[in-house]
Amino acid sequence: MGLFDIFKRNNSEEFEDYHEDDERLNVYDAADIWVSNGKDEDYTFGYTESELEDALNE
Predict the structure, then answer these.
(1) Please, what is the angle between helix 27-36 and helix 49-57, to 10°?
(2) Domain of life of the organism in this record (predicted)?
């Protein structure tokens, strides 16, 4: 393996394995972060705004 061969490797399997093991943020923590960021849609963490609002009201 040459020096530049390391850049040619396909890391998609490593990437997929990494994401399969990720823990999802629970809705309550996500709601707290979402509110603290002004209910910015970039901070919904895969939840709908309705789910986040419901978590805040519980």
Answers:
(1) 100
(2) Bacteria
Q: In whole angstroms, what is the distance from residue 58 CA to residue 50 CA? A: 12
pLDDT digits (tens, 9 = 90+) for 6-57: 555 555 555 555 555 567 899 999 999 999 999 999 999 999 999 999 999 9
pLDDT tens per residue, range 17-30: 555 556 789 999 99
Q: How many helices (H) and strands (E) does the chain have?
A: 3, 0
Structure tokens at 2: 């040459």
Q: What are the residue ranges spanned by the domains of the chain?
A: 3-57
